[in-house]
Fold each of these.
Amino acid sequence: MTMGNDPDRLGRLMSGAGRKMPFLGFEDEVMKEIEARNAMSRLMKMEIRLSRIFFIAGLVIGGVVLSVPGLSFRFAEENGIPPWTALIMIALLLVLLLFSEKLARVTSLRNSNHQ
Amino acid sequence: MDELYIKKVLNGDSDAFRYFVHNYKDMAFNIAMSVLKSEFDASDVVQEAFLIAYSRLSTFRGDSKFSTWLCRIVINESLKHRKKLSTYDHLHPDIDPANEVAGDEIFDSIEPMEEDQRKYFVELALDRIASREALVLTLYYIEGYQIAEVSDLTGWSLSNVKVILSRGRKSMYAELNRILKSEKQLLY
């Protein structure tokens, strides 16, 4: 190094330097992004919780749906009802269930749109 | 004070994190700028660094200061971003010992200047030197870290940091000299 290159003087010169963030909305932008990520993670957690609940509910309902025809046929047999009548009754019940579920979904969608 | 706000954030008060963004955004920006040399890239990297710090705050053990921890994240993200951009330092040729300049002359010219002008020259020179050198000089002289701390923050060995610091000083003298010369040419 050439004589006279003084690190202390460079240090003094540089210590006064240092840039400042030039973008005025930076703080708000970061906080907004944090909020958005928080909302997303809350939503994800809720979705995971709901999917677990629906999985269990699906298992239970599936079991019930599978066992209902057998039980119904036995009930029909014991009470002298022809098996095909019991079958139609079960089919109607399932259609009614599906229809009411769709109806409930449409109603809740309409309500949320009104709000 | 940092500990208090860390607790607040960890207890679910996400808005308390604004305290860290407010207090450390300039430091983080300064470090990112030394590596990336672009305000937009540096700002993006600093934002990402704050988001990482927020999401990993629970892993902060408090062995070091929050600013040091954040500084490490900013350095990592800046170097990663630089690698991704695959940019090479647009540098002036290596410093030839024959072209080495006497620092005293430079300081004698710069020191009497107004503070804003001095700052402008230093920032301009930092923008023109290699990222590694600018980073080490920024951490050491502007942010006030010791050489061992710089080594710890960057992950570079102690001797490597010393070499980079020494080269950085020479590069700064050369760049400041170049800037001063071109300024003089403009004036006369």
Amino acid sequence: MDNTNYAIKEYDIVVVGGGHAGCEAALVASRMGFSTLVATLTINDIAGMPCNPAIGGLAKGQLVREIDALGGEMGKAIDETGIQFKMLNGSKGPAVWSPRAQADKKAYHERMLKALKEQEGLDIIEAEVTGIIVEDGWIKGVETNGEEKIKGKRVILALGTFPNGLMHIGEKKIPGGRRGEPTARGLSDQLNRMGFERRRLKTGTPPRLKRDTIDFSKCEPQFGDTNPSPFSFQTTKIDREQILCYVTYTNKEIHELITNNIDRAPLYSGQISGIGPRYCPSIEDKVVRFSGKDRHQIFLEPEGLESDEIYVNGLATSLPVDIQEEMVALIPGLEDATILKYGYAIEYDFFPPYQINSSLESKRVKGLYFAGQVNGTSGYEEAAAQGIMAGINASLGLRGDPSFVLKRNQAYIGVLIDDLVTKEIDEPYRMFTSRAEYRLLLRQDNADERLLKYSVRYGLSKKEQWEKAIKRRKRVIKACLRLSEEKLSKDLCNKVLKEIAGRQVEEGKKAWELLARPEIELGILEKYLPNGHLKLNEREKRSLEIRAKYNGYIKRQRKTAERFVKMDMIKIPQDFSYMNIGSLSIEAREKMEKFKPETLGQASRMAGVRAADLSILMVLLEKGKKTAVNR
Amino acid sequence: MGENTIVALGTPPGESAIAVVRISGDDAVGIADGMMAGAKSWESHQFYKRIIRDHNGEVVDDVLAVVMREPNSYTGEDIVEISCHGSMNIVSAIIEESMWLGAELAPPGEFTKRAFLNGKIDLAQAEAVADLISSETKLQRSVALEHLRGGLSKKVRKIEEKLLQQLSLVEVSIDFSTEDIEMFSISELVETSVWIRKKLEGLIASKKAGAKLRNGIRITLTGPRNAGKSSIYNTLLGEERAIVSHIPGTTRDILRERIHIGGFTYYLEDTAGIAEAESEIEAIGISAGIEAAEAADMVVFVIDGSVEPEEKVYKLAGKLKGKRHLIAINKMDLGLKIDKKEVEERLGADSVIEISALTSDGFDELKKWIYTNTVTAEMGKISRERIAVNSRQAMALHRALEALNKMEKDISVGQPAEILSIELREAAAACGEITGRSVEEDLLGHIFSRFCIGK
């Protein structure tokens, strides 16, 4: 523990937790010039992946790209430690492409730990934080189990599943935040005593198998992309060798086994009270709820290049160990597999996020921030996204600057946090592209164009990066103009159309018009352009193609967004009292009193708040303003 | 505030002599131009007599309109106020036309809210504004509840359910493409879209018949002067509403009242007799009467049967060809000097009856005739099923219809799922305006209950 530092007991920012939220928060805080401490239970678990060994995925990949554009670490770390890269939805339109990569867990952890250690102004301490210190409504620091006090002007809680973590394997209950790790109890209880509401959530993991006991010849191999796309805008190329994953399936015998032993599953015996995610059901849940389905997919994912552990994605379970043994042996390819770690379900405390505002700062204690699973989210990417925002906002708070809040039309991160502070969280919250009403605007390819300007402003990205992005955009726009003027003769048009077996045309067409058609790719069109090839690189070409194909729709979403953004500009004072306003509907009063919306826009997105309630609010806000002026 | 332009009825709903429709916002004057073009441009705070036509060029009403330019108006925005005849038929036609031209139906209390926000109402009144919005909303909600009990909401919910189903299939293909689940089928999507469009078209078509049901079928009494139109009017009403005298040309204004025949509401109009006007006021009355007859669902042409008919009476009656009408030979009690057969032959019509406003003879036949010639099969159906959409609902359904049309077009040129999703959401959102449901909120729940998702 040479790297820990007990000499300094006073920091600008203390980050509690070294998971994905904690790492991003600590890195940006120190990069913004503040002395920062990360307190973690075990250094070995910095940026660990207790669930599946992968970063990115649908909608999550977009989050990683945004984190990267904001100057975060996740994208770079996975680019350096990923072992299989895939662009999901590649067969669909570019608006919904999402990068995903299998991670080498150990390498990822080491890579992130290195970043933390090398970061100037950042210390790591291995300790359990048992309480926070609050004076006059302001955070002053934290207490550790060593009965020590660490002063901090800002504190970020990124506790993961540790608060009152309780693992279930069949009838067995083990307190702990993860397999083999202690739980953090004191802090959650203290927060609760201070008036923070806490509730229980549940999530689960599958068993891990010993690699050389699996017969992969009975499984279907899954390949990565031949041309892997990096996550980070600064990674130019990924040329590491890529590994294979495998797919196998459950069968009727397994389903029968589960059905016969369902009373031994904690989820069904009533042993678990927390709510699990509907999008990530355990195998027993799948079998019970979708009894008509004959088989379920099982992905076999290596946990690393050197690791002999295989993650059995799709087989999350909290059934007792004997059933897990039987179950695995019934799966093709896994007949002789050795289970290294059994699957388990874990229940943990979270603090419903109506208690924070959109800068992730607690409403109750000034200077205290919540990020990640403590807010009821699920996923490394969701956590990291909140971590970076909490880190930036804690730093801005110290500078005395206004907080940084992304709008729903600017980033998935904006959608994520806006959802957290306006909606009831009934299950672990995961990002989906369908949550983003302006999906076509929030693409993985343009995350830097959307967000670099902010990270440059906060000193988290280099100015040259932004200038490069601007230049790139200019070149693309120039090409747009060229194509909208360049006309292809009837003959040329028909040559293009012949290549894609499209219907022939009677007269010539503008290049832009052809490119706008969903079936005509730029690669084909370009060969027939009368003025020759475009002087653009691959990325610029893709950007050009997106502009052409989505043109009208992007404009439409921009226009709708503008209308709604106006509502987000109208601020509501936090001391506004709703309960006495008789003209508001009762439902709206209760909802707004609980959530305390910061803007009219936030209020408009709360279930139960109607258009009439917004009208009334608008009037009363104006009244408040005028009264203030009259004074 | 650069808000959207809104329209609403400014006077209390229900039948009245005059109703005022109010349009406020940046596009108010443009919308006024769109439906009642005139030679002169609008001077602020000046009254103009104009004819409103709908987008098919049909006359809706002749009105008095005034433009009040910002900031010198109630809301502080450009306002157009239209004083029209107080029939709900006409009012809803004008509101609807404004909506076609881009106005939005004003939410409760919106005019007053804007007045307040633009500093036209003082601070002390703010609370009152909030209360007004709240009470108007409650009223509207109870009206909405009324509809819920009827069949409309149920029907739209069914459509919504189908849209949600298709949308969740499309979204699953985007958000869960790595899962081992069925992907959406284009042909099924098109099939559903076509089915929904048919339903939507049916509902939209019910608007016209529905409006007739709610607002009354318009019956206009017309004919030469002193034929006893006002007496028939009073007899049908069962009360002395119109002034009757032997002096020809007594009726100058158009009188309107509701009556009920066979459970349906009728909207009866008494007009000035048609003749050479002896005064300017009478002339206005006569031309208004002619226009009313043109706009009516049915015309009852009244002839004085106690005198020999003049040639011009036949000429007048002949003008009604192509219009649903009935010829009533009045004053049967005085002894008829007109032969029913001759009238039938001369006018080539079999719709001639003999009545007496004084004794009520022939009135049963008159009512029966009115009923059977105005109540269509569709109206009968609507009155049984209790589904009929109003302008606002029709507008929403129309939006849904357009979105589906666009989606089908998108499909035909091979647009990908994320584009199809935009139109499906639009269609679902439009339906949600009627049912009050938010598809966004239902979507994920729908997906998770239907598909086994998650590794």
